[in-house]
Design goal:
The complex is a heterodimer of chains A (235) and B (241). Chain A is mostly beta strands and 235 residues long. Chain A is built from two helices and 22 strands. The chains are: A mainly beta (235), B mainly alpha (241).
Chain lengths: 235, 241
């Protein structure tokens, strides 16, 4: 129980899901574009040793996704969101569920945005068994075996929070589900860039969370049909 | 790479000595004879006065082939926080990544699960696997942890340590060894069914099967380490008293 509380505090400080969110039509919305940047000497990328199932998983080591910094300092896999937005466009409705793929003993994508209430499709493209094992405070823990003879598993995530994902079979595999309660979220690309679109004009708290670098917030003002350009720096 | 593997191996093995540094054998004996014996038995045979009250049955400590695969740190955490908290990763600052049996209910039919249990019985009795289809499922889904021969020595369990020599499993708790009678007799077929279908946490939390309770609220840290030392030295290592 004590740890539950500790985990709860950690997630609460690391993550602020917005207040109750109301979907509406957004006309002449603005955008927030920008970059998440690491300033200073970037630490070396951690190399994760591949220790088993080498015919499928490969040999040697693979660079970790836990901190990926481009040549110009861009931070990949940072999650950018408008923390205090209460009204705006509806969550995207797409025919496909959010999907996480296990291939060559690696999760792709490393960070997956999951609108709360969605069904997640989990694929195993490998000829070995994986298992998906999550760590979460609000959603039930998932610990499902995923042998190769069942290509797809499905489960739903209903509560907004950050969920850590691991495979107990292959200790180097890790990923994150970011369960969202509104659509103003983006994951930075390999250059550290992000774009949030169709935002009702107003002043918002821009929140950036990264699994290794932590969290930062800054204020951003969005004007109709304009781009608010911003750079968020970690040191 | 080889150096890293060696270092990891040493780190895992050296954990087994932690109770010797932190615990006192006489204190451990007192705690054991006051509390633990009621389920686990005076001789560590898992048949104390209350042994019939739990499903699965209490752990058999006097079973060196299986028990030597546990690290002292894991035993310490289970006594102090209870097995459920360890399995759920709720132990503060734990260096362990305890691995609970995952659920197979999404990928196996109930009938396939029952046939897997038959296969477990066959392995214990030294018989050939009864059904080739189920053997194929076993090799794909179970062998990574439990080993091709079901001895709890799959690649994930042993890492770079050399089985069948006694080893401390890389993952804790060590995967079941289906050929170990003292261990396997603790598990009813009904328990095994739900264990495979729902996983270890599901079997406990949804189906209500028993698991080791926490004793950290009544035992000091030193007492916990001491009782782990007692179990290690007397029951597992067979040290004369």
């Amino acid at each position: 129980m004590m740890l539950l509380v500790i985990v709860g505090i950690f997630l609460a400080t690391a993550w602020h899901p917005g207040m109750a969110y109301e979907a509406m039509e957004v006309q002449n919305g603005g955008r927030v574009t920008g970059m998440v940047k690491f300033v200073g000497t970037a630490p070396a990328i951690e190399q994760l040793p591949i220790t088993r199932d080498e015919t499928v998983c490969g040999t040697g080591s693979r660079p970790s996704d836990a901190l990926v910094i481009s040549a110009n300092g861009g931070v990949q896999y940072a999650v950018v969101s408008l923390a205090n937005i209460t009204k705006g466009k509806p969550q995207p409705s797409t025919p496909d569920n959010p999907r996480l793929v296990q291939e060559k003993c690696w999760f792709t994508p490393h960070v997956l945005l999951v609108p709360a209430g969605s069904t997640v499709d989990l694929f195993n493209h490998d000829k070995v068994m994986h298992n998906i094992h999550t760590t979460s405070a609000k959603n039930p823990v998932i610990n499902k075996a995923h042998p190769s003879f069942r290509k797809r598993l499905r489960f739903s995530l209903n509560e907004p929070e950050v969920v850590k994902v691991r495979c107990d079979m292959h200790a180097w595999m890790s990923a994150w589900f970011v369960v969202t309660d509104h659509p103003y979220y983006a994951v930075t690309d390999a250059q550290g860039a992000f774009t949030l679109t169709d935002i009702p004009p107003g002043t918002y708290t821009l929140q950036v969370w990264h699994e290794t670098l932590g969290q930062q917030t800054q204020e951003v003002t969005v004007r109709a049909t304009s781009d608010a350009k911003t750079v968020v720096e970690f040191k | 790479m080889i150096t890293l593997a060696l270092l990891c191996g040493i780190a895992v093995v050296s954990e087994a000595g932690e109770s010797q540094q932190k615990g006192d054998l006489a204190v451990g004996k007192n705690v054991y004879m006051e509390i633990c014996f009621s389920c686990h038995g005076m001789t560590g045979d898992g048949k104390g006065p209350s042994w019939l009250n739990t499903t699965p049955r209490p752990q058999v400590f006097a079973n060196p082939a299986y028990m030597s695969r546990f690290s002292d740190r894991y035993l310490y955490e289970v006594v102090k926080y209870g097995k459920l908290a360890v399995m759920k990763g709720e132990v503060p600052n734990s260096p362990l990544e305890a691995v609970a049996m995952p659920s197979f209910g999404d990928v196996l039919e109930d009938d396939q699960i029952r046939k897997l249990i038959e296969l477990e019985h066959a392995l214990l009795n030294g018989q050939e696997p009864p059904d080739p289809e189920i053997k194929a499922i076993f090799d794909e889904a179970c062998a990574a942890c439990h080993g091709k021969g079901g001895r709890g020595d799959g690649e994930r369990a042993t890492s770079k340590q050399p089985p069948p020599k006694s080893f401390v499993s890389e993952i804790q708790p060590p995967p079941a060894d289906y050929t170990n009678a003292a261990l396997m007799h603790r598990f009813s077929d009904e328990f095994r069914f739900w264990l495979i279908k729902e996983g270890r946490l599901g079997a406990t939390e949804k189906q209500g099967f028993d698991t080791m309770k926490p004793y950290g609220h009544i035992l000091s840290d030193q007492e916990v380490w001491s009782v782990v030392r007692y179990i290690r030295e007397v029951f597992i290592n067979g040290q004369k008293q």
